Amino acid sequence: MIDFEMSPQIENARTMIHMMAEQTMRPISREYDEREHEEPTEWHEMMWSVSKGSEVTFGGSKGDKKAKGPSERNLTSAITIEELSWGDAGLYLSIPNAGLGGAAVAAAGTPEQRKRFLARFQEGKPKWAAMAITEPGCGSDSAAITTTAARDGDQWVLNGTKIFCTSGQRALDESDGFVVVWATVDKTAGRAGIKAFVVEAHTPGVTVTKVEDKLGIRASDTAQLVLEDCRIPLDNLLGTAEVKTQGSEGFKGVMATFDATRPAVAASAIGIGRAAVDFVRDALAKAGVTIRYDAPYSKVTALERDFMEMESNLQAARLLTWRAAWMMDRGMHNNLEASMCKSKAGLAVTQVTQKAIEVLGPLGYSRKLLVEKWMRDAKINDIFEGTQQINLMIVARRILGYSNKELN
Ligand SMILES: Cc1cc2nc3c(=O)[nH]c(=O)nc-3n(C[C@H](O)[C@H](O)[C@H](O)COP(=O)(O)OP(=O)(O)OC[C@H]3O[C@@H](n4cnc5c(N)ncnc54)[C@H](O)[C@@H]3O)c2cc1C
Fold it and tell me: In the beta sheet, which residues pair with residue 271?
């Protein structure tokens, strides 16, 4: 059975979050775009108090299934993220919660680790968790990671540099959060040697050395971290320390994080795109332009066609995203669907926001409106959590059965 109807619970949550996005995010959107490295403290406190304990991130489908049937947690998250990103994608990314680091713990951690590292997001002061994969010499090819983790007695000793780590500064310096650091325990083992390690805030040996100035999502901090003989407990390694050179099971475990985070990125992209589409729809209505959805093709104007394309691309991306989330809620393997929705949504949002500026003309380009900001905020969705090209390669690999080597 296929059912596209939302449950009343999800519908109510959506209405509430939309109101919150409109009333609390839009009014400070421009301000925190301009004051890039300042924290919207009051807003963070408010978000922490309303969302503490609830889930805004994806993942953790294992063990979520209630006796009554599958949960709707990931589908609800997709809808929540879309609404929050409709409000402001940079602010959404800056919300104190388990975030990307939490998704990594949920995907690769044991039940004990999930409890130990995630319980903090239910209590106390605002906290962040981040994920550090990217290095100066490695981005798309995460198997090329050079950060090392060497065992010394009952500790791991981490050394290396990580760049472009979302919420890295807030996780390490401004809260009792953590960063999940990907490092190799055996460089000769390639992918099989790569493991994920939880580095707690304020651990000696980890330093935030830089916070990036960016094109978009400027309310979100993006940090560079240096690990110098950073010592962490043995059981902060997520999953197993065993290096299986036959096959890459360990690496697959850490890569599973992306199956959860890519639909989240896609949902955020759709939220930004919808902000632009909603704005254009209103502007056209004020100018007396009605979109004739039922007009014959030969009678449709270029403007109507452009607008319908904007809407339909977003809707296609949304359906792919909901499918990936729905599958996660049922504990189904969604690697293909996660990459499909991420690549479609990343492309759709960059095209939709650019088209919005084109349709609105100079007004769209002006900083008086938020439309130019949405175009700047959009592009990141085509870059992080695997670029457009990388996600398309994953789709091709899974559908056509080609190897990485053949596709490269
Ligand atoms: C604002 C921001 C926040 C970020 N947050 C995080 C974070 O929290 N944690 C984290 O670890 N990283 C984060 N990143 C890093 C991001 O994930 C990487 O930038 C991304 O994975 C791409 O890696 P790269 O920049 O090294 O580009 P490269 O891998 O060097 O790629 C450059 C270009 O080449 C293309 N390309 C690469 N390989 C291939 C191939 N085989 N075939 C075809 N095309 C290819 C890419 O698609 C891209 O267009 C963030 C980046 C930004 C900008």
Answer: none
| Burial (CB count <10 Å: 0-12, 13-18, 19+), residue 116 | middle
Cα separation, 406 vs 401, whole angstroms: 10
C-alpha 334 – ligand 1 centre gap (Å) = 21
Beta-strand relationship, 129-132 and 178-184: parallel
8 Å CB contact between 100 and 166 = yes
- Report the interhelical angle of 73-94 vs 302-329 (nearest 10°): 120
To test the pocket of ligand 1, the residue of 133, 225, 384, 388 to mutate (highest count of ligand atoms within 8 Å of its CB) is 384
Structure-block tokens of residue 384: 């992080």
Strand partners, 160: 227
Three-class SS state of 209? strand
Residue ranges of the chain whose pLDDT lies below 50: 56, 61-67
CA atoms 216, 265, 54, 59: torsion sign: negative
Has 174 been annotated as catalytic? no
Report how far residue 19's alpha carbon sits from residue 17's, in angstroms, rounded to the nearest whole number.
Answer: 5
In terms of residues, how long is the chain? 408
Separation between Cα atoms, residue 287 and residue 304, nearest integer Å: 13
Chain centre to alpha carbon of residue 151 = 31
With a 6 Å cutoff on the Cβ, whether 131 touches ligand 1 is: yes
Residue-wise pLDDT tens digits, 347-361:
999 999 999 999 999
C-alpha radius of gyration, the chain, whole number: 21
252-306 pLDDT, tens per residue? Answer: 777 888 999 999 999 999 999 999 999 999 999 999 999 999 999 999 999 999 9
